[in-house]
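Dear H.,

Thanks for agreeing to be a second pair of eyes. The structure we're designing against is below in token form, covering all 713 positions.
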């Protein structure tokens, strides 16, 4: 081996060794930062996890919701798998000239596949550049960082082609149909002699290697860390019902706080979310709070928590979070996720007029506990802007759980700090004292019965004796005058169909969903246990409710507190669809309405009930069902979820008005819903737009009652 060859090998070993050292340091640091979180207690069902990982990672199921970017990402994903072998082949060619991957006669087909892949990736990169910098999609960040990654990829592809073309000239190889692109480049540069081609071969070979190693070091320190963390995040995603909140052990006497008030109080799975974020903006693009001008951006929330974890983790573990440290000393990557207010305060402390701390100052601030998770990193306004609709989670290609994090921080504010918006505090007090958000007396809960007419009857538990279904009316159906019409319509339908049912009357309690979503886990657990005791006492077998929030709580969250698994829980649209299919209910009267249906978040994204409401509507003669642009699993929230029904919107435009505009765009005569909260919000939306005479708002049960000639509307 010549001296030059030795130098070539030594340079290769040093470059690769240094890059691997930097990469390993960063990855181990991130691993230690994630380990700061609490251990998950969820029992793993690995078979389900593997299937989900395959569907999401190999099939790009969520990414393909946006077909254009989905196909672009699919090309890059599978292209880079092919090109990993191409990179290995190139290393062999550069270190041992005359050798290549031992694929026998199949090698030429590999070379052809590689060149086709390179062209496809370059086209995908061009399209990515177009979408970000020319089309300027609102959800995509611009700046030099995203462009740097595109340059990395372009450099890798071009250097691979140029290396192969120079090798062909150097070795005197003729044009090959198995390497059409590099052969064409070689033909265009045929004036280069073999000696110069050899020199250029090694120049491009080293360029490819250095770009590859720089990419290796850069990836875990950028948004492209999702390439490394997302597969683990997809595998370890929370299983079970979507959006189900985990109970807090309120009797734990060793607990210093309830909820999450420090980044280390999140679970390790939640911290893994932070490094898995793609920063694609899909979550923020569909967030009802963000799109109506509120402070909350789900993507920015994740990014700020990630930056905070990195700096906080560095302070706790005493590890340098960025490598090579000198290259990142004053970069934007060293920013901590501070609010504008706290950053200005930090600037005044450090004398930095810009209000931005250097890395060492950030770590010191973290170690001195000067940075608060809630207040400095994430503002209370952001937390209370969330409607818990889960559209962000549904659109996230790496399975991040934004809502769970927000709820954990709300729980901290409510249970540990006792800090709530005034309306939320008033609502919780009313629920605690009288069992409903308005504070109306408990004894008036069955007041809706006085409006029953024409022989309709709602038997009490004692009166019914044996019964098949418990009709859980809920607070909206019991106290809200508009929602009472839904309740009475259901009573009329069940009487007409000869259903054996009973109601609890004044014994009925609040489901507790509002309390839980406003962060008061203590009140929720108290209400849940009380309701469960009542259900068991009366030997309830099946529950029907018109409230998707109560439906979700009963079906998915009450079992954690002892609800018998033998009790079946139905939303009224599910059971109405079933009764129609069984022939118990036969809609006969034509309504002649153009109806658009609004999917409730807690019925749809939380519980996957999309077909049942449409089955009911389709069974009604004269109804022409038209879909809004945002429907099904991409339906926009009405604005009432997460307890926000009881909070006043003070920023931006009203969510319910924006949703009503989307409904109006398809020119319906009726907006149908399957949730009393949604019905209220959409009704208010039509009034705000001055369209209440053009578009009526009805629950599906009301429309069905009209069609069987038994209307309360």
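And this is the sequence the design step returned. I haven't edited it by hand at all.
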């Amino acid at each position: 081996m010549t001296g030059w060859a030795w130098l070539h090998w030594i340079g290769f070993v040093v470059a690769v060794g240094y890059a691997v050292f930097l990469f390993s340091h960063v990855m181990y640091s991130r691993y230690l930062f994630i380990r700061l979180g609490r251990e998950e207690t969820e029992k793993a069902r690995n078979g389900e996890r593997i299937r989900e990982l395959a569907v999401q990672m190999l099939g790009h199921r969520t990414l393909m919701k946006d077909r254009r970017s989905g196909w672009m990402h699919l090309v890059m994903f599978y292209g880079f798998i092919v090109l990993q072998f191409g990179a290995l082949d190139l290393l062999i060619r550069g270190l041992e000239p005359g050798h290549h991957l031992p694929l026998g006669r199949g090698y030429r087909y590999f070379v052809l596949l590689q060149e086709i892949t390179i062209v496809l990736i370059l086209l995908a990169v061009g399209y990515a550049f177009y979408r970000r910098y020319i089309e300027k999609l609102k959800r995509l960040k611009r700046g030099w960082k995203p462009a740097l990654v595109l340059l990395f990829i372009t450099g890798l592809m071009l250097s691979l082609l140029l290396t192969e073309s120079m090798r062909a000239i150097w070795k005197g190889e003729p044009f090959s149909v198995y390497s059409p692109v590099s052969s064409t480049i070689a033909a265009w540069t045929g004036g280069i002699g073999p000696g110069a081609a050899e020199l250029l071969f090694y120049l491009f070979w080293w360029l490819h290697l250095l770009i590859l190693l720089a990419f290796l070091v850069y990836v875990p320190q950028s948004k492209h860390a999702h390439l490394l963390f997302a597969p683990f995040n997809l595998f370890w995603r929370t299983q079970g019902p979507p959006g189900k909140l985990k109970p807090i052990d309120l009797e734990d006497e060793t607990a210093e706080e309830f909820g999450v008030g420090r980044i280390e109080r999140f679970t390790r799975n939640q911290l893994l979310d932070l490094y898995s974020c793609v920063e694609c903006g899909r979550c923020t693009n569909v967030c009802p709070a963000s799109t109506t001008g509120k402070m909350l951006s789900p993507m920015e929330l994740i990014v700020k928590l990630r930056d905070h974890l990195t700096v906080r983790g560095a302070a706790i573990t005493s590890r340098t979070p960025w490598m090579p440290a000198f290259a990142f000393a004053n970069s934007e990557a060293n920013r901590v996720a501070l609010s504008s207010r706290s950053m200005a305060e930090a600037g005044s402390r450090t004398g930095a007029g810009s209000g931005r701390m250097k890395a060492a100052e950030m770590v010191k601030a973290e170690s001195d506990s000067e940075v608060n998770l809630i207040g400095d990193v994430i503002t209370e306004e952001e937390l209370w802007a969330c409607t818990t609709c889960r559209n962000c989670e549904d659109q996230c290609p790496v399975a991040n759980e934004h809502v769970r994090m927000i709820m954990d921080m709300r729980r901290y504010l409510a249970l540990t700090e006792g800090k709530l918006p005034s309306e939320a505090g008033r609502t919780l007090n009313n629920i605690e004292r009288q069992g409903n958000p308005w504070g109306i007396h408990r004894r008036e809960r069955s007041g809706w019965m006085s409006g029953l007419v024409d022989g309709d009857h709602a038997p009490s538990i004692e009166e019914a004796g044996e019964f098949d279904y418990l009709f859980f009316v809920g607070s909206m159906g019991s106290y809200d005058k508009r929602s009472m019409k839904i309740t009475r319509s259901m009573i009329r339908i069940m009487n007409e169909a000869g259903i054996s049912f009973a109601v609890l009357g004044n014994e009925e309690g609040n489901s507790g969903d509002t309390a839980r979503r406003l962060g008061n886990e203590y009140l929720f657990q108290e209400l849940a246990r009380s309701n469960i005791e009542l259900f068991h006492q009366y030997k309830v077998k099946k529950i029907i409710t018109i409230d998707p929030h109560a439906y979700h709580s009963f079906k998915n969250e009450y079992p954690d507190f002892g609800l018998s698994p033998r009790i079946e829980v139905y939303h009224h649209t599910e059971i109405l669809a079933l009764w129609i299919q069984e022939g118990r209910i036969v809609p006969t009267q034509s309504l002649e309405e153009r109806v658009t249906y609004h999917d409730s978040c807690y019925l749809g994204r939380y519980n996957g009930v999309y077909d049942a409401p449409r089955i009911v509507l389709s069974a009604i003669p004269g109804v022409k069902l038209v879909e809004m642009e945002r429907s099904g699993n991409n339906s926009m929230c009405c604005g009432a979820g997460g307890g926000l029904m009881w909070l006043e919107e003070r920023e931006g435009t009203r969510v319910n008005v924006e949703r009503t505009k989307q409904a109006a765009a398809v020119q319906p005569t009726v907006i149908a819903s399957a949730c009393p909260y949604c019905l209220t919000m959409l009704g208010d939306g039509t009034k705000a737009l001055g369209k209440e005479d053009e578009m009526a708002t009805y629950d599906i049960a009301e429309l069905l009652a009209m069609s069987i000639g038994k209307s309360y509307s």
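Two observations from my side: The two ends are 93 Å apart (CA to CA). The first strand starts at residue 469 and ends at 472.

Warmly,
E.
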